[in-house]
Amino acid sequence: MRRIFLCCSALALFCSLPVAQAGVEIGGTRVVYDGKMKQATIGINNPDDKPYLIQSWVNKRADSDDAGEMFITTPPLFRLEPHSQNSVRIALTGSTLPQDRESVYWLNIKSIPSTDKNASNDLKIAVKNTMKLFYRPAGLPGDPATAYQKVEFKQRDGKLFAFNPTAYSVSFYDVKINGVALQDPLMVLPKEEVSLGSVSARAPEISWRAINDFGGISEEQKVKL
Fold this sequence. Notes:
Helix content: under 10%
Number of domains: 2
Number of helices: 0
Strand content: over 45%
Radius of gyration: 20 Å
CATH class of the largest domain: Mainly Beta
Distance between the termini: 32 Å
């Protein structure tokens, strides 16, 4: 999820924007925090001719701008000079997270461009990039790359459900019922079930793909209910 914020005095407008279109480039679409490590990092590049102020924080909900207490980012606020690179480090604060499954949070990185002091009617465009942060405890069973293959689909009371029996989160890229794609495929957390919507066909064929740790798309899987 990526949002662009237009700020002029108290005015704020929101619309979607790809990561690299506003000048600052983020080195990935998701972050996997290996529980064996003290921290995770993500790179930030400024190919523009002007500096940016970079702000970062982690929270539990994608639709919230409040920083949570489970993770800290370092540095939380810094100036990124033109044609330079830096990185944001994410560290667990010491609070206890489940050790038998992944936990999912959201990393937010906001880039605020510099202001031309000589410009009149100045309009700042600040871009907030929001991406999933997966905290993966050490020693989890199974392979995260194949977790999506183990998702179990069930038809119940006219609805399609997906259950994830693994210790890893599965982010669907798409889910199709008899070749027709669902409009809003969801993420299925470890050991949890989600409803994917209504299904009227009897014995439908379900096909699905997932997004891997690197933001790539998996091979398609199929099952007939």
